[in-house]
Design brief:
The complex is a heterodimer of chains A (290) and B (347). By secondary structure, chain A is α/β, with parallel strands linked by helices. Chain A is built from ten helices and ten strands. Chain B has a two-stranded antiparallel ribbon with strand order 1-4. Chain B has 347 residues and is mostly helical. The chains are: A alpha/beta (290), B mainly alpha (347).
């Protein structure tokens, strides 16, 4: 461990390896279009779980169902937080957030007119308790709370190496930095589980490396469970513990990166024919720190 | 040698005024406000009082429209609720003026929250139309519920008194109005450095992301309407006690649009912008009227069309402002400050 963090990022009470999130036979359709048909998967505490699949496979729909933005017609999404099990389908997004389910978005959805600091502090929203009156008076309890969370947020700034931009308006930042701030905002929720929707889309290889390092830091140093959607197969195969493959709204495979690499169904989904050479089969063999 | 301002505690870094220059500026401003009435005549005092009332109303609207992004055309209606409630409580129940202001503001907050319910489903222009309905419903009620409000006839409010002083005399009212404007500004600034304010801005910038961060949209949108309307109610109630007369004509749709213009010209999502906008929109018509009077003496021929020239100039100045400085007077002020801060090395 390189840095000393004074504040834990992880709010989960489960032990590593315990089942944290169960998606059971989830069906989601928009009008007549089926986005998810009978998807079942299980995420365990402190693992990096990747969801891959071609465009339109239903990856983001699955994430949106977990965070409550979409409401699947049938099935269960069950979240365990060590105190009990919660059915997420039908729960309001802000209640789901309170359980410790944090996420980032495919298209950056930061609060553009706020500074980086304020974005991160906005991420702490669910943990801030002072009431309206003390917030209006500010001096006293509200100020103490704000300063305590500022200290916490500085830890995240430290972790993500964004010290120099902490007072910049987010809208003026470069794309790669915005993605980093969005990760930070999700971390500010002290997540029990972190859902990342294409955290590396549109980045150059150096930025991707940085982002992969941050994700691994969060996972290894703080033990935060990560569910990751990503198109860069090199990254997915390198950092994930387990991978699920979606195609046309169905899960066609699940397993370790090595198993997925060799799975004929996956090869077919990506390339459309069985004989083709799988693009990343020839690359370096698995291993998280390749 | 001092090379800059370095904060060594989060407390000082998170203060409202972070640098000595900022502290000096605000101290000078407060000093000006305190000294001004002793040198002002009755006319300028009246203008200053109008500015204070408008500032409170503009801050209220800015909380809702500038910070939370919920466009409201109901400002006039909400002010009417504040003014009529304060007036009626004083006239009918003989309530002391200060209590009537507090209760009127709370009543306006509740009314605002009720008319804010459509905001949960409607955004942007659609919400503007819904709040327009609020404006019309409130004014219709005021003019038609004769038994309560006296209908279209003016409601005469007795003079507010404090230890025998007539508080609605310009000099005395000045202190009340500016004290309340100061409190409103401070409370609002404080609000926007806590999670309440951040949630409001988050709703404006990305409501879905805000919801996923744990912001209860239902609760916070209604809260924005309630807090905003509370301050609008304060300004309406002040108006009732200052003018000693409450008539529906002061709270028409024109007022709603005027206040929107105030916050657009002053600066959306800014407390100082609310003050700038309120000052500008109060002083410009006064300035134009005085110019008109002066011109009339020189060119008696234009006497008849003078009001039209004033209206047109008013519109023209606003349009020019929007084109040249779309972010409002607040931005202009920041540019001026930046110029002097960076001078003579402006790169």
């Amino acid at each position: 461990m390189l840095r000393g963090f004074r504040h834990p990022l992880n709010s989960s009470r489960l032990k590593p390896g315990e089942t944290q999130l169960q998606v059971q036979n989830v069906h989601l359709s928009f009008g007549g279009v089926a986005a998810l048909t009978g998807v079942t998967l299980e995420v365990k505490q402190s693992e990096i779980f990747a969801i891959i699949g071609p465009n339109g496979a239903g990856k983001t729909s699955l994430l949106n169902s977990i965070s409550g933005l979409y409401k699947p017609q049938s099935g269960h999404i069950i979240f365990h937080d060590g105190r009990g099990s919660h059915e997420l389908i039908g729960m309001k997004p802000h209640k789901i957030a309170r359980l410790g389910i944090a996420r980032s978005f495919q298209n950056i959805e930061l609060f553009r007119h706020m500074t980086v600091l304020d974005n991160l502090l906005a991420g702490c929203h669910v943990h801030m308790k002072s009431n309206l009156l003390s917030a209006m008076i500010y001096w006293g309890p509200a100020q103490r709370e704000q300063i305590a969370f500022r200290e916490f947020v500085e830890d995240i700034i430290d972790l993500l190496e964004i010290e120099s931009i902490r007072n910049k308006k987010v809208g003026t930042l470069a794309y790669g930095l915005q993605k980093r701030v969005e990760l930070g905002r999700a971390l500010a929720m002290k997540p029990a589980i972190l859902l990342l929707d294409e955290p590396m889309a549109g980045m150059n290889s150096e930025e991707k490396e940085d982002m992969a390092r941050f994700i691994l830091d969060v996972n290894e140093e703080h033990g935060v469970t990560i569910v990751l959607i990503e198109h860069d197969m090199g990254v997915v195969m390198d950092i994930s513990d387990r991978v699920a493959v979606l195609n046309f709204g169905q899960k066609i495979a699940e397993g370790t990166p090595d198993e997925i690499r060799k799975n004929p169904l996956v090869v077919q989904a990506y390339l459309g024919e069985e004989q083709a050479v799988f693009p990343f089969a020839a690359g370096a063999a698995g291993g998280r720190h390749a | 040698m001092v090379s800059g301002v370095f904060h060594t505690s989060y407390e000082s870094d998170m203060a409202l005024r972070r640098t000595p220059a900022q502290k000096i500026r605000i101290a000078l401003f407060i000093l000006f406000i305190l000294v001004f009435p002793f040198f002002a005549n009755k006319y300028t005092l009246t203008l200053a009082n109008q500015i204070a009332i408008a500032t409170i109303g503009a801050i209220g609207l800015n909380i809702l429209t500038g910070y939370t992004g919920q466009i409201s055309l109901g400002q006039g209606g909400f002010m009417a609720v504040g003014a009529y409630t304060a007036g009626l409580l004083t006239v009918r129940l003989g309530m002391p003026w200060w209590l009537s202001i507090i209760i009127a503001s709370l009543v306006t907050a509740v009314v605002g929250a009720i008319f804010g319910i459509p905001s949960l489903r409607l955004k942007g222009l659609y919400l503007a139309i819904a709040t327009l309905a609020a404006q019309e419903i409130i004014l219709w009620t005021v003019t038609h519920w004769k038994g309560l409000t006296g209908g279209v006839e003016a409601l005469v409010v007795p003079d507010p008194r404090l230890f025998g002083l007539r508080l609605n005399a310009d000099f005395n009212f000045y202190w009340l109005a500016w004290a309340l404007a100061g409190i409103t500004a401070l409370v609002t600034l404080n609000l926007f450095r806590t999670h309440y304010g951040r949630a409001f801005i988050a709703i404006r910038d990305q409501d879905i992301a805000a919801e996923v961060m744990g912001v209860n949209l239902f609760r916070y949108k209604l809260l924005a309407f309630a807090i905003s309307s509370f301050f609008v109610g304060v300004s309406g109630a002040l108006l009732a006690h200052y003018r000693s007369i409450v008539t529906w004509e002061r709270f028409t749709l024109d007022v709603s649009v005027l206040y929107l213009a105030m916050i657009i010209i002053g600066g959306m999502g800014s407390v100082s912008g609310s003050l700038f906008g309120a000052s500008f929109m109060t002083l410009l018509p006064a300035f134009l009227t005085n110019m008109g009077r002066a011109l009339r003496k020189v060119f008696p021929a234009i006497n008849a069309i003078m009001p039209f020239i004033q209206e047109a100039t008013f519109g023209l100045v606003i349009i020019l402002f929007l084109i040249l400085e779309p972010e409002g007077l607040k931005k202009l002020w920041e540019d001026i400050k930046d110029y002097f801060r960076l001078w003579p090395f402006s790169y």
